[in-house]
Amino acid sequence: MAQNQLKTQYTDLKRSFEAKPADLKKCGSLLAKLKIGLIETGLLTPQGEHGVDDLVVARDILEIGAIWSIRTRDVPSFDRYFSQLQTFYTDYSSVLPPSKNEYPIRGLNLIRLLTQNRIADFHTTLESLPLPADAIADNQYISHPVNLEQWLMEGSYSKVWNARERAPVEEYKFFVDSLMGTIRNEIASCEEAAYESLPLKDALTLLFFNNQSELLIFAQQRGWQVDLSKSLITFATKGEEQVDIPKQKLISSALAYARELEQIV
Amino acid sequence: MKSTDKDENKDEKKQENKGEEVKKEPPTPLAEIKSNFVLIDRAVSTLEPRFTHRVLRTLTTLVKRLDETIIRNAIQEAYPKESTTKSTLISWLPTTSEDIEMQVDPTPTSAATAKFAAPVTSEPVPEVDIYLRLLIINQLLKSTEGVSKAKELSVETVKKMQALNRRSLDSIAAKVWFAVERAFELAGDISEARPMFLAAQRTAALRHDDDTQASLINRLLRSYLAYSLYDQADKLVSKTTFPVSAGNPQYARYHYYLGRIKTVQLNYSDAHTNLQQAIRRAPPATVAPGFYQAVHKLFVVVELLMGDIPDRSIFRHPVLEKPLKGYFEIVKAVRTGSLSQFQQTVLKHAALFQADKTHTLITRLRQNVIKTGIRRLSLSYSLISLKDICVKLHLDSEEDAEYIVGKSIRDGVIDGRLVHEKGWMACGGAGGVKRGYGADVAETFSRRIGYCLELHNQSVKAMRYPLNAHRKELADAEGAREREKELAKEIQEGDLDDEDLGGEF
């Protein structure tokens, strides 16, 4: 009976998810019910033998859940769905037919790690992708975050900005927006170090702002001095920083050398 | 691992002229096996694992010289006539035409038999059985047809070992696990063996069976890394403690795997230390060239990622020169900071890097190349326009160049300023010279000293001391104390004398 109910709920979910515009609220409530159903049938974290069809259904539900989480801007929920999907993607990869949503979702996960500045996790995930290295460039879902990371690291921020429009799936844009916030702060900190002063007009383009008022608010947040009459931003020179001698550290390392020497002699 | 092909070639060659060689070499393989039986027996009866270690140390060289006939003879001689263990052991050996030859021409072997032992009447210890199984598995693994059989046998051997549950078996068991992994890997399904390894690892940890535990942790790490499951591998490392008493080869492997994991996680300095340890603990380059090469490949990449340029002498090493050629070209590209050269090299050697699983790591180097390029420019020009930077570094647009230079200034790669209105970068200033003193020097110094101290401590730990040697020292100390006492007594007496004398005066 549970199986039947699951089936009808699943088709329901699929219908409301694929409808345009998708009924997110309904999807949410259906997903909650379906997850309970999955737990009851032991399909949420499958162990041992299950029918291929059942597994496919379970995977579909979770995939919809993941995408739904992005649409409702619920990142922690996406995180949970993604970890549940891992089982299907890695352990059952030989049994199940490949899903067309797999790489978009993996790509979304990569972008999520990038926006949260978890670069180490980003690379670990990238390494464990079941793709040969040259296929990464061909897979648009994966190459997108990979390129973003590379540009971020070398500092080609304008490329990141331009890539925003080229997101392979609609959902990517959600992350790209929050990525822009990170980038702006990055650029701003670079500018503080690299320039003495900067005309407002140029700062506008460099920071990808559309109008001056946004820039002014941003400048205020970072504590820049804005001279409106000359339309110039002056960055506070940090002056000659007093370099502290790390006494504590030096003492402790000197003591450590002494102790080691004592042991040797 | 990669050296196996070479080894196999060597084996073939050896087997070709086996006929003469076996007779000439002082201990024939058969004799060696026989003496190993004695050692194992002694190890079991005296509860002294040292003897077993001695047996296992010769394993690799011995296996290379073995063939089915030798093993068969060894089994024949070790067991009494109607032994079930014997028949099961023999049944695992493939029956080839050689056997018939052997029966026709048994002269060298029977001569050896006569020399060594009278017919055995009692069943030898089970350790001998497992040791023989180990030899058989290794023998089976030499040919491709034997792999599936080896897998079967290895699974059965493991079951037997677990049923026997003898502590004197532990060090042999560690080697058996290695053979198990090899069998499964050659058969192409290590992931199947993983649950078995995990279960065995738990048991080994509970029994403080250090040899097996070390071996199994490495097996597991290897199997995780083979499937690029860095997350799981990392969790395994954090949840287990690698036994301190593990042998150098196991340590070398463990450090190599740790190095791999850490590199992926961008923890380059830790990875560097791990790989350095792995290189130091690895067997000499000529003995295990495969491992030596694999570690060095990763090591070079990690050094580059850290912003260092690897030592040139690495690329001149006879064992490393050829396999590291692609990496050498990468190093050259990074050193000159030429992005186009770097790109070309990566493309040219893509297949090599993918086979070594370093491709993604090398693509991470791109930013280092750019940084080196900018640094070179900043050193050689006091003023340079962004456009020129763009041309020289093969960047896509001036806009990019501006951001990239800005980032390098912030990261402290170069010392300079951007002048946006004029579109140039002004480099160098009075402030630039000051850096490099004080804290920086102290840090470098402490890093180098730390390295030396660690080297010293590790080598002290690696030293072996003869058993009971301290007894002698104790006796000496006792003697010294005695003498001291006497001396003290004499002095006291002398004092008294003095006093006496004093009294007289």
TrEMBL record, chain A:
Per the UniProt record, one Pfam family is: CSN8_PSD8_EIF3K
Tell me which family the UniProt entry assigns to this protein.
Belongs to the proteasome subunit S14 family.
Which InterPro entries does this one have?
A: 26S_Psome_Rpn12, CSN8_PSD8_EIF3K, PCI_dom
GO CC annotation: proteasome complex
Residue span, PCI domain: 76-248
Annotated protein name in UniProt: Proteasome 26S subunit
Keyword annotations: Proteasome
Q: Where are the transmembrane segments?
A: none
Its source organism is Lentinula lateritia
Q: Does the keyword Transcription apply?
A: no
UniProtKB/TrEMBL annotation, chain B:
Q: Which domain of life is it from?
A: Eukaryota
- PROSITE patterns named among the record's database cross-references: PCI
Spell out the Acidic residues composition-biased ranges: 493-505
Keyword annotations from UniProtKB, A to Z: Proteasome
Q: Where is the composition biased (Basic and acidic residues)?
A: 1-26, 475-492
Positions of region (Disordered)? 1-28, 475-505
Q: Report domain PCI positions.
A: 252-432
The record ties this protein, via SMART domains, to: PAM (SM00753), PINT (SM00088)
**Which Pfam families does the record match to this protein?**
PCI, Rpn3_C, TPR_PSMD3_N
- PANTHER family the record matches: 26S PROTEASOME NON-ATPASE REGULATORY SUBUNIT 3, 26S PROTEASOME NON-ATPASE REGULATORY SUBUNIT 3/COP9 SIGNALOSOME COMPLEX SUBUNIT 3
Q: Which family does it belong to?
A: Belongs to the proteasome subunit S3 family.
Could you tell me what this protein is called?
Answer: PCI domain-containing protein
